[in-house]
Amino acid sequence: MANAQGTSPVPLTTPPSALFARVRQWFSEQNIIFLITTLVIAYLVLVPVGTLVIASFRSNFLGFGPSSWTLNNYSATLGASSFPSLIGNSLEYAGLVTLFATVIGMALAWLYVRTNTPAKWFALLASLVPLIIPGLINAAAWVLMLAPNGPVNNAANAVGLPRIQVYSLTGMVLVQTLQTIPLAFLMGLAMMGSMDRSLEEAAAVSGATPRRTLRSIVFPLMRPGVLGAALLVFVLTISSFEVPQLIGVPAHEWVLTTEIYNATSQYPVKYGTVAVLGMVVLVIALLGLYLSRRLGGMTVRETVTGKGFRPTIIDLGRWRWASFGAVAIFGLISLVLPVCALVWASLLPVYQNPSGAALHKLTLSNYTAIFDTSSTMNAAENTIVIAVLTGLITTLICVVAAYLLVKTRVRARRVLEMLATAPIALPSVILGVSLLYWYLAAPLPVHLYGSIAILVIAFVTGALPFGLRFIEPAFSQISTELEEAAANSGATRFQVFTRIYLPLLRPALTAAFLYCFIIAFKELTSALFLYSPKSEVLSVSMYSSWIAGSYTSVCAMGTLMVIVLAIAVLLVRKLGSSRTSRTIQIPHVAR
Known about the structure:
The chain has helices at residues 16-26, 29-56, 72-78, 83-114, 120-128, 135-145, 151-158, 169-193, 197-205, 210-238, 242-248, 256-265, 271-295, 319-346, 365-372, 374-407, 413-421, 428-441, 452-476, 480-488, 493-522, 525-530, 538-547, 551-577. By secondary structure, it is an all-alpha fold. It folds into 2 domains: 81-306 and 321-346, Orthogonal Bundle (MetI-like fold); 363-591, MetI-like fold. Helix 2 crosses helix 17 (413-421) and helix 9 runs antiparallel to helix 10 (210-238). It starts with 15 loop residues before the first helix and ends in a 14-residue tail after the last helix. Residues 299-309 and 579-591 have low confidence and may be disordered.
């Protein structure tokens, strides 16, 4: 029917051909891959956390008898007489670690980036090497050194310094601070390295003194990054487990994470209490990470930078040797002492302080016992299998996700990015508890609790943000012209992906795999909630041996673990510094 002007009628419905084309677009290969990838990542991230939330509002969760919605778990847990001291200890512990770690880490970063301190490479080495030492091993080494008659306290007593009681809040703060300084150092390194010296030069030309330049320009520019880094350190500390468990529990200094583990170790298990405490840690972590992201603690903030930019190097004059002394002392405390203590203890049948008499008792029996003990070898085999699977699966998921995020225009790709990076806000203790609850409660056709598969799922979930950070920037550096040229030659999307992108991404993929391998290899917290005797891993085996008093055996296993992780880190560094550009042949397919 024509309108008043006699023109053609306006169609009231979409033509069948257009509707068919739209349906084909919805079910295109790209959209199907996007949907599958998003569902997989959403399952890994959202389902276990949702289970934890539900468990916190259910009575008699996973127990016998009826279960109903209730707020009693929150009222009983948050209203308990011990909760104020628990939250107070947790905040005090995390706050003190945050203060000391941020100040020392930023100071080391300033010395490394902005000054002419001699042998600055040692500051970098002393700050980064502790990252590969598992938290359990580092805490164990300091427990041995700070024992009442340990070598550190004996040396302190000889020079008239007060002894340090390791089983105390002070001991917890000291050991956790040394473990967390590298994070603050790395974030300070990125922040200070991006500050343009032209602002300081302009202030100097205007007659400003160095002190006023620091107060008026440098410190205001650094403040958001420092606060953001401090919040991230706070989040990681309040969700840490190894140091509070090995040092805090014997001192009766309970924090949220150790109380969660204690509640799961009791019979009957206090599922409601565990869920509520997990929600408290999760809320604190999410709030801290949100504020850290807003303040720039999780990104490299750029001030005014330009071509040929270099940060201003400050001549310390006579103080340069004093700064070198400070760096050397830090390296001695954070790196040399714990590594030497670890190796020394591993060579003794029973731990003794370093002395000439003890040299006659050095032996390799702890190392031979590792290879002669079937349970330890099974744990080592499980660890390698789980770490390899974690690296492979995480890298596969991340390379597909990165391709969808960078090389496609799918409207909902930001949802995928949010889901893939969300696990950075999930502390390991929360991940372990939530997966424990989900695979105990969910009516799944396959029983996964206590299997290797559930550990792989937990480690893959935790490693997703890190794998994506390796691969996504590498994808961004590859021009889409290569894909377009291949498509014009008749290549399918799969051929483009396998014959163009994968060869160019090989260094980034290998580095992502090795980094995820490292994460899984040394993870303890989530594994403690999910392992069974058949799926025990090395970190759990070391923890059990430490509880049983086999300190020297733990140090031997820890030494071997550090060697393996050091080799992995060297491979990551080598591959990360290699050139990703190479000549490739665009696949041509006959039409």
